[in-house]
Amino acid sequence: SKTYQNILVSTPAKGVTLITLNRPKALNALNSQLFHELNQATEKADNDPAVGAIVITGNEKAFAAGADIKEMKDIQYAHAYKSNFLGHWTKLTTIRKPIIAAVSGFALGGGCELAMMCDIILASPNANFGQPEINLGVIPGAGGTQRLTHAVGKSRAMEMVLTGNMIGAEEAASTGLISRVVKEGSVVDEAVKVASKISSKGQVAVQAAKEGVNAAFELSLQEGTRFERRLFHTLFATKDQKEGMAAFAEKRKPTFTHE
Ligand code: CAA
User: Fold this and answer.
1) Which of 79, 103, 165, 225 is deepest in the core (most CB within 10 A)?
2) Residue 207 parent element (H or E)
């Protein structure tokens, strides 16, 4: 299997790819190479029929403390613009399979933005989320002003982005930034459990469900519900729909073939 320098990739359960960000000395600061590796690993999992869901995690102290400040401090505008600096980060949002972020410790700047690009965020009680870019003379550059605002609303997003203040796990849960806080030390296990469960469903429906929820961020309610209904209709062309509904009627467990 492929070896990476900044991430670890494993299969902790059937159908689940676990990606561990692995620059602990730099609090998993997201340098360019790390994100390219993350893109390669997620794309590989996306194209592997044996994988149903992906978990991304860091370590106890940091999910990721942001883009690598040392790597970007001397970048000039012309270079940033011409190279579309950080543009490759958006590749993660094109992954079709569900991605769960298992967050402990710092999720700051690009780390918070990475978590927000995932589909579900679970957090340890010690997790801290923030967009401290303002303290560096810049602003969030990987979706922070957009996804945070969608998640927590204008006032809270403004306060976080303008002051750089962090919020804890409980506050992140109560504002809807994350799905829930789990017991200390269990966030990766919990995320793998959720990923396993997703992986056991019909994968065509899972992919359609992710596409549908994501459409809510792009479309009006009328267009969005129409898109959803069309996706719903397409699922009647799948064997998994026939199997899922037959199994319900026959009071047995479905066996999905992902077709
Ligand atoms: N980039 C590069 N290196 C980083 C880093 C980052 N984002 N965050 C931490 N590190 C490094 C530190 O420089 C330090 O390295 P050395 O041992 O070589 O000095 C090491 O990780 C440990 O960090 P600290 O000693 O600072 O640890 P701490 O516990 O005292 O503080 C912290 C933790 C409060 C998270 C602090 O590290 C910090 O403020 N980090 C920067 C957070 C930040 O500003 N993130 C936003 C980055 S900009 C961005 O992400 C742009 C975007 O929108 C994409």
Assistant:
1) 103
2) helix 203-215
